[in-house]
Amino acid sequence: MIDFYYWTTPNGHKVTLFLEEAGLPYRVIPIDIAKGAQFDPAFLAVAPNNRIPAVVDHEPTGGGEPIALFESGAILLYLAEKTGRFLPQDLRGRTEALTWLFWQMGGLGPMAGQNHHFSIYAPERIPYATERYVRETGRLYGVLDRRLADCPFVAGEDYGIADMAIYPWIVPWHAQQQDLDAHPNLRRWFDAVAARPATVRAYAVADSLA
Q: Of 2, 90, 182, 186, which sits with the fewest C-beta atoms within 10 Å of its C-beta?
């Protein structure tokens, strides 16, 4: 059983996507960040950076004490290695997948996150900041669109953790002031991931907490 500390953000959705795809048994522990639950000492014991998601695996490979992880990319990699799924085993395939996973962690997530902040949540409008992050989000959409012109999924022929990491950050494309239809390869990929039964189940988990 995996304890899954979760709230309905793109980073939270990444882990739900993996858990539903892999069919791993898990228990959702809601961390309502709007109410400050991320600062609860019990949560900080698992996730000292006071950010969701986090997991505790009570049945780690090889046995022993439970393993706690925070940071969504680390969690996806851990779960992929635990299950032997959604991450290629060959050197080139694995390298490709990890490259795009880190692209999301270091690029798309932070830039789209700042886009969300300055476009939606900032207490005052700062046109320079908004324009900067909207433009950078658009550039990254273009990078992804060009990549997907050559392969069905982000890391190649098979769906994997890179797709799971990226998809939730594309879901709010309208709020990010992007035109998904201007990126036909990205649109094709997005619709394919959205239609996966595990994706539907993952977002139903979010709906249950709304």
A: 90
